[in-house]
Fold:
Amino acid sequence: MSKKIVVIGGGISGLSSAALLKNSGYEVILLEKNNELGGRGRIWKDKGFTFDMGPSWYMMPEVFENFFGLFGKKVSDYYNLLRLDSHYKVFFPDGNVFNISKDLDINVELFESVEKGAGDKLKKYLAKSRHTYETAMQDLVMLDYKNIFKYINVGFINSLLKLDPITSFSKSFHGYVSKYFRNPELQKIIEFTTVFLGGSPYNTPAFYNLITHADFNLGIYYPDGGINKFIQALSKLCSEVGVEVHTGEEVQHITVKDRKAISIETKNKSYPADIVLSSADYHFTETKLIDKNFRTYDDNYWSNKIMSPSAFNIYLGLNQKVSKLEHHNLYFDDSWEKSFKEVYNVHKWPDNPSYYVHVPSKTDPSVAPDGSEAVFILVPVAAGLEDDDTIREIMYEKVLSHFEGLVGQSIRDSIVTKRIFSHRDFNSSYNAFKGAAFGLAHTLGQTALFRPKNFSRKIKNLYYAGQYTNPGVGMPVCLLSSQITANLIKAEN
Ligand SMILES: Cc1cc2nc3c(=O)[nH]c(=O)nc-3n(C[C@H](O)[C@H](O)[C@H](O)COP(=O)(O)OP(=O)(O)OC[C@H]3O[C@@H](n4cnc5c(N)ncnc54)[C@H](O)[C@@H]3O)c2cc1C
Structure:
């Protein structure tokens, strides 16, 4: 009889792990606390508008293709993928506005027009970042670090050496980028992607220059109908392979006997298990679902971790078009460095926030009624802040007033629907530690083997997948973490 695996959590990692394991012959039950699947990738629908509540940048398309390929499927079996012509539009306080295109020559010209020589430097920078990306993906990313001595071999060391380790791991992303570009606005265009890694240009190591390859060379995509088409695809895949999925089923405890998880308890039911995989937030699983003596990481470990930001999210359905915006838009304030300090060092709400604006209705008429716009404004803010109605109102007013000035249009009178989602919602919706949106930041001390492990050291048959584990944050990266964990489970069970 095949072994029974219970997967906790029905976000990207839970769904993808469940499908992989079921396809490998295990009996798989997935339990999700919310009434819908997708976790941070859920949607919110209201008054004819559809909002992807979390991820909006679909990058590294080959990772998605490879994942569905493991089932003999293609992405196009589930959704139609569009490549965006305008990757994103960047607004600066001095009135400069830059459009980053899918066409590299246009971007090279743009960089050259801002700073003499920067066009050529962009090409050189991108050649390096391609090399870093390809080396990491080929040799370093898919490791479970169960036994690190297994990896300390000539091949592994060669791969590390190929990455120019002194620069990659000693310099900050900002330090690295500054060697190529002097103009602060060009630096910001390259550096903002560290936020995708839950970090800042100042605490993310130069090694992550690989993400610029994903941005400028591999492209920015959009599943026709919204990012949630990808969640629907994972959920369909689970049903095609035969995963038993239960929503509205919150796990309350993992029962352990002789250092083995034997069952999962929810409010009304006990699910026997031979193997357990948790894709819920790691801190929550360790501190709330298992008894203290079975934790791999103690309170001290968690209190020393550098968390990613939380996100102050504003979803707006507008009954007008906003002509100045593209699909992806970014505003970078002059107090950029101070804002990062407010997130990682001072831990306070930002005085002059930089922000991101997603307007999928620019590409996709299905997400808003005719003549309307679905707008999602995301402000990265420090994790762990007090999030009450008063501060929400202050932040909302601050951001909306600035946004109206940025787009040169009155927005308030055209709001048909509005929702704010921040720390307390991340906590209640996903059991997020400190309300963090993206889990752990990718600092040097929280990269690869230094991230929480994909397995428990105290409970023999408990495994983890998701954005807290290796390789880390983001939709494609979570697909990789699921594959690492599924492979480890198969190897050990
Ligand atoms: C605002 C925002 C914007 C983002 N933008 C991007 C982007 O543009 N591109 C990109 O690639 N990535 C982006 N990300 C990151 C990406 O969404 C995440 O890395 C990824 O979705 C994490 O998936 P996960 O499965 O690890 O975690 P989750 O999505 O959190 O899934 C965990 C699941 O476990 C469930 N759960 C928790 N506790 C229990 C319990 N006790 N019992 C049962 N179930 C439980 C939760 O409800 C949740 O569904 C963004 C994230 C956020 C929040």
